Amino acid sequence: WFGRWGVNYVYGTGAVVPALVAAGLPASHPAIRRSVAWLGQVQNEDGGWGEDLRSYRDTAWHGRGHSTASQT
Fold first, then answer.
1. Measured between alpha carbons, how far is 17 from 46 in angstroms, rounded to an integer?
2. CA 26/CA 72 separation, integer angstroms
3. What is the spatial distance between Cα 30 and Cα 13, in angstroms, rounded to a whole number?
4. Which of 14, 31, 52, 61 shows the smallest number of beta carbons within 10 Å?
5. 3-class SS at 5?
6. What's the start-to-end Cα distance of the chain, in Å?
7. Distance (Å, rounded) from C-alpha 12 to C-alpha 25?
C-alpha cells in the first residue's frame, strides 16, 4: 500500500497489515498474504527494510533502499 507520512510502500504496507488484522481480517486473507509475501521479497539481507524517495516517481524503487530504523 502507498504511504504518505513515511517513505512510501514499505511504510504503507507495514501500517495497513496490522490495521487489517485489528479490523478482523484473518491472516489467511489474500490481501494480507500478498502483503506479507511482498515484504519478504523486498526485505534486505541484513533483515531490515528501507525505501528510497525515488519510489514516489519510479516503480523500480518500490521497496528498495538501505535499511532504516523507521522501516525495520
1. 22
2. 23
3. 14
4. 31
5. coil
6. 16
7. 17
